[in-house]
Structure formats: structure tokens, C-alpha cells
């Protein structure tokens, strides 16, 4: 058996996320990634049975970083308005290429498509719950959550807002959400 490359499964997933962000899903191939790391494909396949398993691991990490960690970072028990404001600044302020790349990948592949659809539902449900906690009826909360989320996705597909734009955008959304029903 040859000497170990020192690349763990975690490191391969990290490499995959960086490749996805910078080059798109076409770069998530064992031979391309191995060559870029200066190792054989055996190092890759030591950790992943196949490329699909690797793709699933990359997608799972994206879900954790792009949603789970964000929700944990903004949780403000008892203060949904502050949580919403923090969520908007954090989300809109860190729109990354990987969000766009993941959505492009999801266009033609059922594995990332299912993940993106699940993340979309989870994010909208979270914003809906915050708006509900702010006093909006379930229908109004769901409608506004979808509008806010569509704005976020638009920014992700277009480009991240500049700092001044971000402040104006978040302020306007917060003001809109504070209007009486």
C-alpha cells in the first residue's frame, strides 16, 4: 500500500466546496480534484466509494454552512424582530458564489436539486416562523417570507449587494415587516 496523502474525508469535502465555489460542479470529479492536490485518485477513493457519495458529502456540508450555522447564529429567543434583522444582514451580506453555483448544479442533477429545494423550504419556514412570532397571520407571514426569500435568491443569482445597498435593502425589508397588518 502506498503512503497516505494526509487528506481526510473532511479535507476532501472542504476542497470540493472550494472547487464548487470557484469553478462550478464540473470541477467535482475525482481525477480533477486529485490532480489539483497532487495525489492519486486512490486518496480520494480511500474516503468515498464513488463520486456520488462525495457529492452528497459536499452538499451536506453546504447545507450545514449555508443554513444550519446561520440559523444558530441568529437565534434570539423572544425577540423575532432582532433575529430577523440579524438573519437578513448575515444572509444578504454573505451571499457567496457557492449559492449561485449550487443552484446552477441543481438545474440538471437531482441530488443537489433535492438539497436546494429542501433548503429553500427550511429557510422560508424559518422566516415565516419569525414573522409569525412578530404577529403576522400565517398567510401574511408565509407570503412575506417568500418575497424576502425571493429577494435573497435574486441577490445570490445576480451578485452580493454592496455595503450601502445592503444597509438600504435590509432596512427597507425590516421597515416593510414592521408595518401594521
Automatic annotation (TrEMBL):
Name this protein carries in UniProt: TetR/AcrR family transcriptional regulator
Give the HTH tetR-type domain ranges: 6-66
Question: Which key words are in the record?
Answer: DNA-binding
What residue stretch is flagged as signal peptide? Answer: none
Output the superkingdom of the source species.
Answer: Bacteria
Q: Which PROSITE patterns match?
A: HTH_TETR_2 (PS50977)
Give me the positions annotated for DNA binding. 29-48
* Record InterPro entries: Homeodomain-like_sf, HTH_TetR
- What species is this protein from? Sedimentimonas flavescens
Amino acid at each position: 500500500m502506498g503512503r497516505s496523502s494526509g487528506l481526510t474525508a473532511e479535507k476532501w469535502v472542504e476542497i470540493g466546496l472550494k472547487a464548487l465555489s470557484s469553478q462550478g460542479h464540473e470541477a467535482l470529479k475525482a481525477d480533477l480534484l486529485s490532480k489539483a492536490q497532487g495525489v492519486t485518485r486512490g486518496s480520494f477513493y480511500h474516503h468515498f466509494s464513488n463520486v456520488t457519495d462525495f457529492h452528497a458529502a459536499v452538499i451536506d456540508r453546504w447545507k450545514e454552512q449555508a443554513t444550519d450555522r446561520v440559523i444558530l447564529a441568529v437565534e434570539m429567543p423572544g425577540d423575532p424582530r432582532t433575529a430577523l434583522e440579524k438573519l437578513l444582514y448575515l444572509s444578504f451580506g454573505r451571499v457567496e458564489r457557492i449559492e449561485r453555483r449550487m443552484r446552477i448544479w441543481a438545474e440538471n442533477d437531482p441530488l443537489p436539486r433535492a438539497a436546494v429545494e429542501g433548503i429553500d423550504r427550511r429557510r422560508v419556514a424559518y422566516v415565516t416562523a419569525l414573522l409569525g412570532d412578530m404577529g403576522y397571520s400565517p398567510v401574511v407571514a408565509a407570503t412575506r417570507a417568500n418575497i424576502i426569500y425571493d429577494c435573497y435568491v435574486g441577490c445570490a443569482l445576480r451578485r452580493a449587494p454592496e455595503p450601502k445597498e445592503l444597509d438600504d435593502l435590509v432596512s427597507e425589508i425590516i421597515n416593510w415587516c414592521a408595518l401594521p397588518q
